[in-house]
Design a protein that fits this description.
The complex is a heterodimer. Chain A is mainly α. Chain A is built from 32 helices and four strands. Chain A has a three-stranded antiparallel beta sheet. By secondary structure, chain B is mainly β. The two termini of chain B are about 30 Å apart. Classes of the chains: A mainly alpha, B mainly beta. Chain A: One of its GO terms (biological process) is protein import into nucleus. Chain A: GO terms for molecular function: structural constituent of nuclear pore.
């Protein structure tokens, strides 16, 4: 699906094959990767970055930006296929998780192998259903055209089911002969001879006069299709040759009685029965050889040679089978399957590669046909090649095969911290899934099933899932307090599920800041021990004062107030940031008191903020300005004269340091609350404080 | 691969950079036309619409970088007008900050959504050359960015007052070429080469002793400069250097290794990996030099060989400028991958092993970073202008003057291979594209 391909973007800018066209015009392409999905933005830029390039405002040249994705977004039936097979994948991961709690060899136990086999068969059945669905005419598929052809799903079906036959035998039967199972697989997926041929022949009066008769009968025998063989051998009882009639009378029961493994409880009995049966076939051969040369022809053919081939197959003559398969136009698969049924009835899975290599020398697989290459690699017991070819056919297949191959020890498990082969293929599939950002849940499900590398890749994806908070607010009014909904909730759950706390907190804090939900953001930062992050949130809260005034500020700050307690309970408080948090909360409290006209308490609070050294220097001026209404409070004197002196001391420090050029440090916040005023205006403002203080002292002494 | 979209006409002149925001839902573009545009993707149909558009600089904009979203919607732009600017998107509801100059409106005649504006928060004018690249540091290091200019100075700016974004401190300013590099015994010859190949004269020719005065003058005269007037006489002769050179940066995305940045600078064809630390002067912990060949380098930069003409010396045959460097997100790997693209037409991938300097004493072979080239591709057969990694560091893309974008991926055996390409050539099947051509001309 990926491979080395080339895509020409439209509209084109140069002629086909004109490699230098752009460069001659002093232009070249450049790009940017999208974090949303594996896609690129591509633009035309200048080959020589320089400011000498003249502006050309009249230029009619378009300056396009192209967008291209590495994969087509899964759609239609493919999407269903992806989401449904995820369920089986998840069940498989649960098994792997369970295995971690058990003894190391638990996975190799019959019990676990049985579960693995069952899940693998689930995959096969599911692919089969998908194939059937995809094979239906368009009318019956309301969702529209397919993204992948039914042929594609058929390929997946043959490959996966062959994998199960060869590598996931029923527990206890791993060492049993495999011939019958292979033949069954072949007969399921590559039906020969065709039913039409059979129908055609059976409709004829003298079918042996038809040129397809003997090939049909030979193939039916080769495929172990005893019913078809018996039917047409029965017809031969009408054949004019008495010799042939006699021979078929002997052959018929032989075909009927060929021992099948499944009918025996012990392989020893099967082997014994097979040997006795072979003896009977040999007797038939002797009988055949007695037919005189002259009697071996009918009006159309040398029936004897034809029958000899069939008997040769039953005798298990390798050269006959190979030759016949060649003549019938069948391939190496058929030879291998027949091998296990006739040549070596006790052929075991582990012996198969030897047979395959012999056969492939004569009948090689089709290198242009991926499915065939995959079959060959499976037969030959070469899991690495299997994965190589399957990943070209469909990353889905290589990922899910590799996932099963690892616990079966067909491929090596995770070595150190580098990427295992299983993870490589899983991540390749995950990359493909990521082509649709909406599939992020499935994408990270696969990635988190991997080792460290995959997990950290998943983190990157998860961190970038667009949270769409704005749309949510539009539809829901606002984010429900304390609770979170929608995508954010999903991201949260995913993080919890895979224990990606750091991601969860980062995402959450990011969100809270965006939403000004500082009351949630601060606890998140504290729990993540992200002190600079908390500092940033507090800064934002303080910024609310500057931009929106004290009422808004007090509201936001009261939301973060509970965190102060939380921070106290922590042994290692993070000095400066905790300090800042405390200041924001206390300062908000002060405003609240003032609003509630609790002037005495407000005054005490203000003094405490100074005396406890909570206020950053840049805020002193603002605090002092806040003191003016309190100083001017009519009914009573709110400050002790010593406290008022303290305020005066701070005020003087500001004046002195500002005159020494440190105005930025002391006045920046005040200047910003005064919206763009300069140092001069700020100082004017502070002079009012000085005046208020002077009057206050006067009132103190006059009492 | 499949084309998923198109913006027919993004700018009035060649686009110089495009940069996605953290989520990939917005795309900022800049151009020789001195403007920045911010595009927004409609998630329903994947089409892009311009959200904001403003004149950002007095010369072509060279690069853009988005800050991490935890700092808000913030973009830094670097320009040939020798400045870096910091822009913040504000919504009129959130920030009734009337004192600031709003850039979204007024300057553009196009109709656009009125609900967002980009405010110029800071203009940083320290560079004494055109600023070629700017990139925000990974967010865990705070709100800071690096910028590289054609004066060969790497500058690191740190935001002091975060919510307001107005005060930026120039926390580091270093001459990349004369930066003392670490000299671990194992890589002796290499670092030796570098030391010799970085004559300070380079700097001297570029910026005469009175450089700051000159640049001040230049900055005032920049308008004329841009409109095509000849450059100030003091800078004559540097034109070639500017054209042949490359200035690029890329931060290490990982937190674990501290603040690291890969920097390519000038025409010497090497990339330095610089470690920034609050406790000591920045040092180059590693030099990525594809042609360490000590003999040649030493000969060309030997004192008797044209020491007066540093430009000529450094432009000796083997040196081709690195135009682009990209540090891959390490995503759990035990090593780093750094990709470089250069005027020699090569795309290289360096596998960089960090030194285990955590438990070691200062005196020992601390910080023994090592690097090896794990891929060296010449398929572009012409200068490479850009290399960039995807977010998981698994696919590298490169852009060359052959008019192709090429992709590179590692096999399961960790061998890097070509993984496809993109171009803008007329497709061979003619029917459909031709009709589109007609549309274009119409």
């Amino acid at each position: 699906m990926l491979g080395e391909s080339h895509l020409n973007l439209v509209p084109p800018l140069v002629e086909s094959g004109d490699v230098e066209g752009l460069a001659k015009a002093g232009q070249t392409l450049s790009l940017a990767w999208s974090p949303l999905n594996p896609s690129l933005a591509i633009f035309v830029t200048s080959t020589t970055p320089s400011d000498e390039h003249s502006l050309k405002p009249d230029s009619n040249d378009d300056q396009p930006i192209y967008f291209a994705g590495l994969d087509s977004v899964p759609s239609s039936e493919r999407r269903l296929f992806i989401t449904d097979t995820l369920i089986i994948f998840a069940a498989f991961q649960n098994l792997m998780k369970a295995a971690k709690q058990q003894e190391p060899d638990w996975l190799q136990s019959d019990q676990s192998l049985e579960v693995m086999r069952k899940l693998a068969i689930d995959y096969v059945n599911f692919i089969k259903e998908c194939w059937i669905h995809a094979s239906q005419p368009l009318l019956r598929r309301p969702e529209g055209p397919l993204q992948f052809s039914s042929e594609h799903y058929r390929s997946l079906y043959t490959c996966f089911s062959l994998f199960v036959v060869l590598y996931l035998a029923e527990p206890g039967y791993e060492d049993a002969p495999v011939g019958d199972e292979l033949m069954e697989w072949l007969n399921t997926h590559f039906i020969e001879p065709s039913t039409e041929e059979g129908d055609h022949l059976s409709s004829l009066e003298h079918p042996w006069e038809d040129e397809t008769f003997w090939p049909y009968l030979t193939r039916a025998t080769l495929r172990g299709l005893s019913k078809a063989s018996i039917f047409f051998l029965g017809i031969l009882s009408r054949h004019p040759s008495e010799d042939l009639q006699a021979l078929t009378k002997t052959l018929l029961p032989l075909i009927e009685s060929q021992p099948r493994l499944q009918n025996f409880t012990a392989e020893r009995d099967f082997a014994y029965a097979s040997r006795r049966w072979s003896d009977k076939v040999k007797a038939l051969r002797i009988e055949m050889d007695r037919v005189p040369e002259d009697n071996r022809y009918d009006a159309f053919d040398n029936w004897w040679d034809r029958l000899s081939d069939i008997v040769g197959i039953l005798e298990g003559r390798a050269e006959v089978i190979k030759r016949v398969c060649g003549e019938l136009g069948s391939d190496w698969k058929e030879v291998c399957a027949a091998w296990g049924v006739f040549v070596d009835v006790r052929l075991r899975r582990q012996d198969l590669p030897d047979v395959v290599s012999q056969v492939l020398d004569i009948l090689p697989p089709d290198p242009t046909h991926l499915e065939d290459m995959i079959h060959a690699a499976l037969f030959a017991g070469e899991p690495l090649k299997v994965l190589e070819h399957t990943s070209q056919l469909d990353p889905w297949l290589s990922a899910h095969l590799a996932d099963i191959m690892e616990p079966l020890s067909l491929i090596e498990a995770n070595l150190d911290e580098e990427l295992s082969l299983r993870d490589f293929h899983i991540l390749k599939y995950a990359d493909y899934l990521h082509s649709d950002p909406a599939l992020w849940r499935i994408t990270v499900d696969y990635m988190y099933s991997c080792g460290e590398i995959g997990k950290l890749q998943a983190d990157e994806i998860l961190l970038r899932v667009p949270l769409r908070l704005r749309e949510q607010i539009e539809s829901n009014g606002r984010i429900q307090s304390g609770g979170i909904v929608g995508v954010l909730k999903d991201v949260n759950q995913t993080c919890l599920q895979y224990q990606r706390e750091l991601v969860r907190r980062t995402v959450a804090a990011q969100t809270m800041i965006q939403e000004k939900d500082y009351g949630l953001a601060v606890p998140y930062c504290i729990s993540a021990e992200d002190w600079p992050g908390m500092g940033r949130v507090v800064d934002r809260v303080l910024e609310e004062y500057i931009s929106s005034g004290s009422t808004a500020f007090a509201k936001y700050a009261s939301a973060i107030a509970p965190s102060v307690q939380e921070l106290r309970n922590r042994p290692s408080r993070q000095g400066i940031f905790a300090h800042r948090l405390l200041f924001a909360v206390r300062y908000a409290h002060f405003h609240q008191l003032r609003e509630e006209q609790e002037f005495q308490d407000a005054a005490l609070d203000l003094l405490a903020i100074f005396s406890e050294d909570l206020a950053p220097k840049s805020w002193w001026a603002v605090l002092l300005c806040d003191s003016v209404p309190l100083l001017q409070h009519g009914p009573s004197l709110l400050f002790a004269s010593a406290s008022a002196s303290e305020l005066l001391r701070k005020l003087e420090e500001i004046f002195v340091r500002t005159s020494q050029g440190a105005g930025d440090e002391y006045l920046s916040v005040l200047m910003r609350t005064m919206h763009g005023s300069g140092e001069k205006e700020a100082l004017e403002q502070l002079k009012l404080v000085r005046l208020a203080l002077a009057r206050y002292f006067a009132r103190c002494t006059s009492r | 691969m499949i084309q998923t979209g198109l913006i027919q006409n993004a700018h009035n002149d060649l686009v110089t950079d495009a940069s996605y925001d953290f989520y990939g839902l917005r795309l900022a573009t800049c151009s020789l036309d001195q403007r920045i545009k911010v595009w927004h993707m409609h998630e329903s149909n994947g089409t892009w619409a311009v959200e904001d558009d403003w004149k950002a600089h007095d010369a072509p904009v060279s690069r853009l970088s988005w800050a991490h979203p935890e700092f808000g919607s913030v973009i830094a732009s670097s320009s040939f007008d020798r400045t870096v600017k910091v822009w913040e998107q504000v919504s009129p509801l959130g920030q009734p900050d009337s004192s600031q100059q709003l850039n979204g409106s007024g300057s553009s005649s196009q109709s656009q959504p009125p609900n967002s504006r980009w405010v110029e928060r800071a203009v940083l004018t320290d560079a004494r050359g055109t600023v070629r690249a700017v990139e925000f540091a990974p967010h865990h290091f705070g709100l800071k960015f690096a910028a590289i200019a054609s004066d060969n100075q790497l500058r690191i700016y740190e935001c002091l007052e975060q919510p307001s974004l107005t005060t930026w401190q120039l926390s580091e300013e270093l001459d990349v070429q004369s930066l003392p590099s670490f000299a671990p015994p194992s890589a002796h010859s290499r670092s030796h080469t570098v030391a010799l190949a970085t004559p300070t004269q380079t700097n001297a020719t570029l910026d005469a002793p009175s450089a700051s005065l000159v640049t001040q003058a230049l900055q005032q005269g920049i308008q004329q400069n841009v409109s095509g007037a000849p450059q100030a006489p003091t800078r004559s002769g540097t034109g070639n250097r500017e054209a042949d050179g490359g200035w690029c940066i890329s931060w290490c995305k990982d937190r674990y290794w501290g603040e690291l940045i890969a920097v390519g600078c000038g025409v010497n064809g090497i990339v330095k990996v610089i470690q920034l630390s609050p406790s000591r002067r920045p040092t180059a912990v590693l030099t990525l030099d594809p042609a360490p060949a000590p003999e040649t380098a030493q000969a060309s930069s030997a004192p008797e060989a044209q020491a007066t003409d540093a430009d000529h010396a450094t432009a000796a045959p083997p040196a081709f400028a690195i135009t682009s460097v990209a540090w891959a997100p390490s995503c759990g790997r035990s090593y780093h991958l750094i990709a470089t693209g250069g005027r020699d037409g090569r795309v290289r991938i360096w596998r960089v092993k960090p030194g285990d300097d955590l438990d070691r004493e200062e005196e020992e072979e601390e910080g023994k970073w090592t690097a090896s080239v794990v891929a060296d591709f010449d398929q572009h057969k012409s200068a490479v202008g850009r290399v960039e990694w995807n977010i998981t560091g698994t696919v590298l893309s490169s852009a060359g003057n052959d008019g192709r974008i090429r992709l590179w991926k590692a096999t399961s055996g960790n061998v890097w291979r070509p993984a496809g390409s993109l171009g803008v050539e007329q497709a061979v099947e003619t029917e459909v594209p031709e009709s589109k051509d007609v549309d274009m001309e119409a």
